[in-house]
Automatic annotation (TrEMBL):
GO terms for molecular function: pyruvate dehydrogenase (acetyl-transferring) activity. This is 3-methyl-2-oxobutanoate dehydrogenase (2-methylpropanoyl-transferring). InterPro entries: THDP-binding, TonB_box_CS, Transketo_C/PFOR_II, Transketolase-like_Pyr-bd, Transketolase_C. It is an enzyme of class 1 (oxidoreductase). CDD domains: TPP_PYR_E1-PDHc-beta_like (cd07036). Residues 16-191 form the Transketolase-like pyrimidine-binding domain. It comes from Novilysobacter luteus. The gene is pdhB.
Length: 338
């Protein structure tokens, strides 16, 4: 092979973080579709508080990467209006706790647009939401409020847990004809890297991902807790317990069939999530198991969750979040019960 041939040989892209995968997905869709726009507080010139939109303003200009006032209500209203009139806006709620002023537009308008107009209008918008704790931020910056939105008909609620899933699922969310709440676990924004080809290949929404096969207990989780749950599965394996790990990924609509199939094999289930325990989304999964998989269960369903308090600042923050030890202990209780 000549030196010129070597120079022309294709190279594998460098691995990227979850936050970089989001930027890559937005840039891909903005190049492919002029109706895709980005808007939010500081998303333009500054590239966003977490730099998720870094470089997009330089590439696409201020008409498509729009710095808004510091006003979440206005951001939500603009987004719904743009989406109902043929654009595909990607709005950013700078932190999860900043969503509450947006609720009226999200729940009363975005989620109902197709239903209200009998299909004449729809609302192809994505609301990106940096989600969850673990970064030593104050209240309103560290919430896990996904369960609120899983109760709203007309919304999709999505939460990726890796760079590859972030890229593929954001592409799918942007292409959806109806509104998507896209929660981004900010604790793992830069935690690790993966190879993510910028090939425009979307991943399916509305499916769970089985990340590890197992026979003894099913561990169900989503978002940042996938990391601790996989680590717990490794520890359990070292003690002779085979754990299957499921990343829910899309909370609404829930792919319950994948969870039920796993539990029919293992007979035991541990649900892991960061949000407070009471009325957390894990309760919905546990209820479905009780209704539809009762005779497959060999032990009561276990939940490992945050506590029924606001996330504590700052020294107790990591104590609040589900840990490997807590997941392992719950799996052992399930094994001992049946």
């Amino acid at each position: 092979m000549s030196s010129n041939d070597k120079a022309a040989a294709p190279t594998t892209p460098a691995p990227i973080t979850l936050i970089e995968a989001l930027t890559q997905a937005m840039a891909h869709e903005m190049r492919a579709d002029d109706s895709v726009v980005v808007l939010g507080e500081d998303v333009g010139v500054n590239g966003g508080v977490f730099r998720a939109t870094a470089g997009l303003h330089a590439q696409f200009g201020s008409q498509r990467v729009i710095d808004t006032p510091l006003d979440e209500t206005t951001i939500a209203g603009l987004t719904v209006g743009m989406a109902s009139q043929g654009m595909k806006p990607i709005a950013e709620a700078q932190f999860d706790g900043f969503m509450y002023p947006m609720v009226d537009f999200i729940v009363c308008h975005a989620a109902r647009m197709r239903y209200r107009t009998r299909g004449r209008l729809h609302c192809p918008m994505v609301l990106r939401v940096p989600w969850g704790g673990g970064i030593r931020a104050p209240e309103h910056h560290s919430e896990a409020n996904e369960a609120i939105f899983t109760n709203v008909p007309g919304l999709r609620v999505v939460m990726p847990s890796s760079p590859q899933r972030a890229y593929g699922m954001l592409l799918a969310a942007i292409r959806e004809p109806d509104p998507v709440i896209f929660f981004e676990p900010k604790r793992i924004y830069r935690q690790y890297k993966e190879h993510v080809p910028d090939d425009g290949e979307a991943l399916p929404l509305d499916v769970c991902y089985v990340l590890r096969d197992g026979d003894d207990v099913t561990l169900v989780t989503w978002g940042a807790q996938v990391k601790e749950t996989l680590e717990a599965a490794e520890q359990l394996a070292s003690e002779g317990i085979s754990a299957e790990v499921i990343d829910v990924a899309t909370l609404r609509p829930l792919d319950f069939a994948t969870i039920a199939e796993s539990v029919s094999k293992t007979g035991r289930c541990v649900i892991v999530h960061e949000a407070p325990k009471t009325a957390g989304f894990g309760a919905e999964i546990a209820a479905r198991l009780a209704e539809e998989s009762m005779y497959d269960l060999l032990a009561p369903v276990e939940r490992v969750t945050g506590y029924d308090t606001h996330i504590p600042l700052f020294r107790l923050e990591m104590k609040y979040l589900p840990s490997v030890d807590r997941v392992v202990a719950a799996a052992k209780r399930a094994m001992a019960a049946g």
